[in-house]
Amino acid sequence: MKHFTVGRDVPHVARFAEETGFDSLWVFERVLFPDPPTQGLWGIPGRPWPGNYRSVADPLITLTLAAAVTERVRLGTSVLVAPLHGPFQLARALASLDAASGGRVVAGLGTGWSLDEYAAAASAPYEQRGRFLDETLDVCRAVWGPDPVAYEGTWTKIAPSEVGPKPARPIPVLLPANSPRAARRLVDRADGWMPGAAGAARLAEEWRRLTDLAAERGRTAPIQSVLRANARYTPKPYDGPTRAPFRGSAEQIAEDLVAHAEVGVEEILIDLQSGVRDARELTDVAAAVHAAARAAGL
């Protein structure tokens, strides 16, 4: 958003979301906007980075501001790029936020894709991003568990120590499943899945493959699911020859919410920032979409 003040607008939007009836608040992570970028958006050659990547506040500071003015909504990351953080410091920050918020944090973690971000801020080479995420998961479980905490890995060494505060409850960890290795990591090590919306039929197929993999690997715990939907609201219904999912009027977006919810995901994170100019416009759009979703039976 072009006109957004972190200290003023984050608390305002957070209070609005809770009072309106939203169940959760989510942040994403971008640490810089290269000009020109080494690669296109998501690593796709020639694909431009969106303008709202130009200035993205630190996600955990943003959630801290939101936590201070809310009582009920969950506070999620979609996603934190694990290699841009030291594992121990990230584990402690998430634990402190969960303790402060009364057990409302949901930790969506990933490996990222931007070579420019890795060059500026990563704690491990891009080629070792999967191994680094594995170590981050290990460190989080250790730090969030009982004292004494002790760990020795490739990037992290923790002498037997007391480490607090502890989370108010076990923090759910959500991961993507964008490759066979990532899917195995999710099934074996995470609480849930964070897919991106690309149509209900594709979501259903991805969900089927993931549940089949879980059965093959002997997982008995349910897999939580939070679908990320990047929406683009238009005041009038979109009437072009084809309509991408989550593009159009509040009622059209609500139709897509219903279609994706029928696949069986537990929660849908709908990002409405694209195209809005400021916090007031964001809350107006969010109110319209929330009303349309309720009218559609969600």
UniProtKB/TrEMBL annotation:
Q: Which Pfam families match?
A: Bac_luciferase
Which InterPro entries does the entry link to? Answer: Diverse_substr_monoxygenases, Lucif-like_OxRdtase_Rv2161c, Luciferase-like_dom, Luciferase-like_sf
Which intervals hold domain Luciferase-like? 8-222
What is the top-level taxon of the source organism?
Bacteria
User: Which PANTHER family does this chain map to?
Assistant: ALKANESULFONATE MONOOXYGENASE-RELATED (PTHR30011), CONSERVED PROTEIN (PTHR30011:SF32)
Q: What is the recorded name of this protein? A: LLM class F420-dependent oxidoreductase
What species is this protein from?
Answer: Streptomyces flavofungini
